[in-house]
Design brief:
- Helices cover 41% and strands 20% of the residues.
- The longest helix is centred in the middle third of the chain and has 16 residues.
- It is globular and about 65 Å long.
- With 361 residues, the chain is of the alpha/beta class.
- The chain contains 18 helices and 13 strands.
Length: 361
């Protein structure tokens, strides 16, 4: 059999590249004669640069940026011809904040990455949005590019309270003539019930009262910049970084589609007998711009079966079928939670070997 292995990262344990290799190693134990094509995936979040560089090549440029807490951290730009790829999580990811006080962290480091990309000669900049630990409406990014206001823009979303005037002329001039693309894993607006604070605030350490406060502050931020853009799908991605990119003339594309096109996933899927995907938690949120749903959709269009190997499977058979998935297998159920976290690569390989007994012919 020919099998395409296209997982996302297993957050906190395995990168997408490591997950693909673990699945392949385990599968070969049971079916050594099967041909495995590895295509690690990303939806715009952590691992975005690694996945694209593995498929597209290009040049990695080392950059240092300010993390949400103010300390300096390393980051990279991927230059492919005149296109620069930026992974926002490198500068403001939840691993920098520990999932706490997201309303106090800044996205200024993302602005530094954009500035470096433009200075490197990029005529197109693709920003992967996902896995952020901050929620400042992109104000920090804009500040690093030269925006000014009557409140601090580089002190997190809470500092935007009372904002009345904003000047975006400098950042807009900087990116004039540059195509900006926001590659998002979600399509939420900036504010409201399904906005950045109400939907993702808990993941960034905000209790319900704080979520309501930051939602109000982000609404003020939208009112003095562009309320219409705040309603656009993806404006709420990465704590509002999507909105800030829209303010600079950027356009949204689903991150999974961009990566799938870059790695030629549709063509690969059409050439195999089975597609395998996966992620840390296969749950209801997986249907909204996440890797498993995107891979399953591509497999379905190619009339190929698709299965998922995940840390946890939290959807029923009906939801699974709605996502275009033929079956899903839980790592925790197969080997136990302790081993799943203590030896994620080995455990995932063992699960793949078990699944191969069912699917390899």
């Amino acid at each position: 059999m020919r099998i395409l292995v296209a997982p996302d990262k297993f957050a906190g344990t395995l990168t997408a590249v490591e997950a693909a290799e673990a699945i392949a190693e385990g599968w070969r134990r049971h079916a050594p004669h099967d041909e495995l094509l590895l295509a690690p995936m990303s939806d715009g979040g952590p691992g975005f640069i690694d996945v694209l560089q593995a498929s597209l090549g290009g040049e990695l440029l080392a950059v240092t940026v300010s993390a949400p807490g103010g300390h300096v951290v390393p980051a990279t730009l991927l230059m492919v011809d005149d296109t620069a790829y930026v992974e926002s999580a490198q500068a403001c990811g939840v691993h920098h904040t520990g999932g706490a006080h997201g309303d106090l962290g800044t996205t200024a480091g993302v602005g530094t990455l954009l500035d470096e990309a433009v200075r490197a000669g990029a005529r197109r900049v693709v920003v992967g949005l996902g896995g952020s630990g901050t929620i400042d409406g992109g104000s920090g990014m804009l500040s690093a590019l030269g925006a000014t206001a009557d409140v601090p823009l580089d002190a997190g979303g809470a500092a935007l309270d009372g904002v009345g005037e904003v000047d975006l002329s400098v950042p807009r001039e900087l990116v004039a003539g540059v195509e900006l693309v926001a590659a998002t894993d979600v399509d939420n607006p900036l504010t409201g019930l399904f906005g950045a604070a109400r939907t993702f605030g808990a993941q960034k350490g905000l209790d319900e009262d704080r979520q309501q406060l930051i939602d109000r502050v982000l609404d003020e931020w939208a009112a003095v910049t562009d309320r219409r853009l705040a309603l656009e799908p993806g404006a709420g991605a990465a704590g509002g970084l999507g909105f800030a990119l829209f303010l600079l003339g950027g356009a949204r594309t689903p991150g999974i589609e961009l990566v799938a096109d870059a790695v030629g996933l549709a063509e690969r899927a059409a050439s195999v007998d089975l597609v395998i995907t996966g992620e840390g938690a296969f749950d209801f949120s997986s249907r909204a711009g996440k890797v498993p749903a995107g891979v399953a959709g591509i497999a379905s269009a190619a009339l190929r079966p698709c299965i998922a190997l995940a840390g946890q499977v939290l959807v029923g058979s009906r939801e699974m079928r709605a996502l275009g998935m033929d079956a899903a297998y839980s790592l925790v159920e197969a080997v136990g939670e302790e081993r799943a976290f203590a030896d994620p690569a080995g455990a995932l390989g063992d699960l793949a070997a078990r699944v191969a007994r069912t699917w390899s012919q």
